[in-house]
Amino acid sequence: MLIDCLNRVLGKAAPNSRIHARERLRLVLVHDRAKMSPYFMNKLKEDLYSVITRYVVADADKLEVVLNQSDRVDEL
Amino acid sequence: MGEIIVVTSGKGGVGKTTTTANIGTALASEGLRVVLIDTDIGLRNLDVVMGLENRIVYDIVDVVNGNCRLKQALIRDKRFESLYLLPAAQTKDKTAISPEDMEYLCKEMKDDYDYVIIDCPAGIEQGFYNAIAGAEKAIVVTTPEVSAVRDADRVIGLLESSDLRNPKLIINRLRPRMVRQGDMMDIEDIVDILAVELLGVVQEDDRIIVSTNRGEPAVMNLVSPAGEAYRRIARRIRGEEVPLMHLEESYGFMGRLRKFMGLC
Questions:
Q1: pLDDT digits (tens, 9 = 90+) for A1-39
Q2: What is the ipTM score, two decimals?
């Protein structure tokens, strides 16, 4: 708190709101581009899990759904 | 044969009109024949930014409705005789023209000008579809903010699905000092996320406000960093390879003092 104040006086703002901006933007764009809300994204994850566990033994905690974006193309 | 370019952004207030005015003026200052079209019907502003608001007799809706000929509605710039403006109507709304009207107008002008530059309204409703209908290329303007980049991404998607592939990006109002401090997304962040080709970067510049106050595009001002950035963008549009500007910011007295003392 005190250090924050001191930094502000000295012209050094709390660093890296840039990182926040970038990460929030990335997340928002995943949903925008997929035309899918976070709610449906979670539903999709759950459904994928239930389908996969029908055929193989898998652990929900270890299941990772990755949405990749390259050159404006999304891949799941 | 001219090139027809639409300047768009999705979000309002990121500098579409300023960009259109400056690129157009820069191209015309090189002797090229340029026409600027304001398609923001009901909220026209390109006339004011160009300082031509007192010369408007007819507008784009008059042309479309057959109240006048295209040549009668075109306003010649004060400074460059090869630069023209086709103003938007102020009293109508965006439904007063159709995408077909725009296609027709663009085709009419393509042979007479080297560049037809279309200033698109904010938003993604009919005004947007009117503006892009006749265009062959697109420039997307954004600022280094989450909301502006998000809207730019949406617009890039819409442009591509309307067959305007490979739109080029202008990052406007970048503040080099904030980027250095880690408080603003940098060029790489934005280009990475949007995955489109960069056309130029324009830094925040108080002289833009002064130039808008006067109705003289910043490219006329030889000491304005934004003006220099737009002149470079214009050269890139012509196909030249021009390096990005070195981004510097004047600090003011306190800033210089802090810098001198090694505090930032």
A1: 555 555 555 655 556 899 999 999 998 898 888 777 778
A2: 0.80
Cα B2 from Cα B246, distance rounded (Å): 31
The structure's pTM equals 0.84
Alpha-carbon gap: A1 to the closest alpha carbon of chain B (Å): 19
| Residue of chain B whose alpha carbon sits nearest to that of A21 | B146
Residues of chain A positioned with their CB less than 8 A from the CB of B183: 13, 15-18
Q: Which fold has domain B3-260?
A: Rossmann fold (3.40.50)
> Which positions ≥6 away from A20 have C-beta within 8 Å?
none
Residue among B106, B97, B101, B103 at smallest CA distance from B35: B106
Q: Where are the domains of chain B?
A: 3-260
> Is the minimum CB–CB distance between A63 and chain B shorter than 8 Å?
no
B193: which chain A residues are within 8 Å (Cβ-Cβ)?
Answer: 22, 25-26, 29
Q: How many CB atoms lie within 10 A of CB A43?
A: 12
How close is the nearest chain A Cα to the Cα of B259, in Å? 10
What pLDDT, in 10s, does the model give residues B45-99?
Answer: 999 999 999 999 999 999 999 999 999 999 999 999 999 999 999 988 888 999 9
Say if the Cβ atoms of A22 and B160 lie within 8 Å: no
How far apart, in whole angstroms, are the C-alpha atoms of residue A45 and residue B97? 45
B160 touching chain A per CB within 8 A: yes
- Residue B227: Cβ within 10 Å count: 23
- CA separation, residue B94 to residues A15, A40, B124 (Å): 44, 35, 12
A76 CB within 8 Å of a chain B CB:
no
Segment B181-228, tens digit of pLDDT: 999 999 999 999 999 999 999 999 999 999 999 999 999 999 999 999
Nearest Cα residue to B21 out of B107, B102, B85, B89: B85
Residues 163-192 of B with CB under 8 A from A: 179, 181-186, 189
